[in-house]
Design a protein that fits this description.
By secondary structure, this protein is an alpha/beta fold. 32% of the residues lie in helices and 24% in strands. 42% of the residues are buried.
Length: 493
């Protein structure tokens, strides 16, 4: 009798229908990662909903926009401003190429700003159409999680509506943070820097990362006086030390005032502008002060603690190798997880999430040999290991190949600015472990090098590749002499 009851119980359980949900997937955040994940999930047959805050160029707790940080207030508008800033020095260089230009060249900031705004509005519309064409239902409003399978959406008119979903994906990205110093309200972040009504004549930038050196280059290229303050000896902590030194030299060569090992202690509003006080007692006058002091994950208003989703000490969502949280139905990708905060990485994570959750192809993101670029002027781009990382991780000796040269364009223009390239190679296996370049077109060149490293290319294969002449890129396949050999320090441990 007991056996029959057990069997009946199993049969009854197997005949139970799966709970009905409004959506197979509901995504909170329609930035690059969220849009990619929702579109690809829909292509696998999932019924998908996605929500995003209303569009505005400046991010806040109540503003956002389809396309997210990268499209609206990040990579895209930043690169547009980099292009704009590059023309000033290019026009100066053009004189030695025979172009007769007036001594004074005017720059119209408002015109560039309008063009930038038109472009991000266009892209915002494209992203909306991508979602619509994929069959994804878009909701404007603020989403938060109220249960393992339930999202509450606060609509633009303030009314709330709940949707159930088999899977919930969080892709809310991050936001700029401000250091807590007196007068911090007088400063701006990169959000506002992309939408200033007036171009500043004097700018102080606090920070040594991507955003700091990029905006320093942008404003200097547009003719502003720029002071860049950062805590370390060199900017761009985490990058190859030799390349960091090259970037610092180039920033100074372009006329940017560098203040290494310097922090700000106070901002004071005066009739002449903002008085910036450093921890060395120095005072700098500025029209604009930019805080480029890092970003924090956007998790504050998602109600995650109430549902039991685990966060780390920075507020980032903890996920496993497949981007799943400790709650099986809730996942997270992109900057909100604080793994590798790059737009193409969020796209990769979104793609692999869709394959894992709906494509029947469990996939882990691979974070090795991911190329990146810092769009200072001239840009820095890298892939793989830095020299310092290589000697730390390699089992044996490491060979370093470098090439430093004056680009052909500069030989006529007269600009004194060297390009430097580097390959880091495992001495035993001949495998190329890392590549770096600082100079014109570095990002365009490094994308191709990244494919080679992803395929496990050796230095011999680089050497056997025919170069394109005359080009800077050919230097990567003509570096024959070892610049230095690094031996891993031996320990008794």
């Amino acid at each position: 009798m007991a056996r029959k009851m057990l069997i009946d119980g199993e049969l009854e359980k197997s005949n139970q229908e799966e709970p009905h949900y409004d959506f197979d997937l509901f995504v909170i955040g329609a930035g690059s990662g969220g849009v990619r994940a929702s579109r690809f999930s829909a292509q696998f047959g999932a019924k998908v909903g996605i929500c995003e805050l209303p569009f505005h160029p400046i991010s806040s707790e109540v503003n956002g926009g389809v396309g997210g940080t990268c499209v609206i207030r990040g990579c895209v508008p930043k690169k547009i401003l980099v292009y704009g800033a590059s023309f000033g020095p290019e026009l100066e260089d053009a004189r030695n190429y025979g172009w007769e230009l007036n001594e004074k060249i005017d720059f119209n900031w408002k015109k560039l700003l309008q063009k930038k705004t038109e472009e991000i509005i266009r892209l915002n519309g494209i992203y909306k159409r991508l979602l619509s064409n994929a069959g994804v239902k878009l909701y404007e409003g603020e989403g938060k999680i109220v249960g393992p399978n339930e999202v509450e959406l606060t609509q633009l008119d303030g009314t709330k509506i709940c949707y159930s979903a088999k899977h919930i994906l969080i892709a809310t990205g991050g936001r700029a943070q401000r250091p807590a110093i007196p007068g911090q309200e007088l400063a701006i972040t990169s959000d506002e820097a992309l939408s200033l009504d007036e171009l500043p004549k004097r700018a102080v930038v606090l920070g040594g990362g991507y955003i700091a050196v990029e905006f320093a280059s942008i404003w200097r290229g547009m003719g502003c006086t720029v002071d860049l303050c950062f805590r370390k000896e060199l900017p761009l902590r985490g990058f190859d030390d030799e390349m960091r030194a090259v970037v610092a030299r180039n920033l100074e060569g372009r006329g940017i005032n560098l203040h290494p090992r310097t922090n700000l202690t106070e901002l004071v509003k005066t009739e002449e502008g903002i008085k910036v006080v450093t921890d060395h007692g120095e005072e700098i006058m500025a029209d604009v002060v930019l805080f480029a002091t890092g970003r924090v994950p956007n998790t504050k208003r998602l109600n995650l603690e109430a549902v039991g989703v685990e966060l780390d000490k920075t507020g980032a969502i903890k996920v496993d190798e497949y981007s799943r949280t400790n709650i099986p139905s809730i996942w997270a990708i992109g900057d909100v997880t604080n793994r590798m905060n790059l737009t193409p990485v969020a796209l990769m994570e979104g793609t692999l999430f869709a394959k894992t959750a709906f494509g029947g192809q469990p996939c882990k993101p691979d974070y090795s040999n991911i190329p990146c670029a810092v769009f200072c002027i001239p840009p820095l781009s890298v892939v793989g290991l830095s020299e310092e990382q290589a000697i730390e991780q390699a089992k044996g000796d490491v060979l370093v190949f470098t090439s430093t040269f004056n680009p052909m364009k500069n030989t006529v223009s007269g600009r004194q600015e060297k390009t430097i390239m580097k390959l880091v190679v495992d001495a035993e296996t001949d495998k190329v472990l890392g590549a770096s370049m600082c100079g014109p077109d570095a990002a365009e060149i490094m994308q191709g090098i990244a494919i080679a490293l992803k395929c496990g290319a050796t230095k011999a294969q680089f050497d056997s590749t025919v170069g394109i002449h005359p080009s800077a890129a050919e230097e990567f396949v003509t570096m024959r002499s070892v610049t230095r050999r690094l031996t891993k320090p031996k320990t008794n441990l």
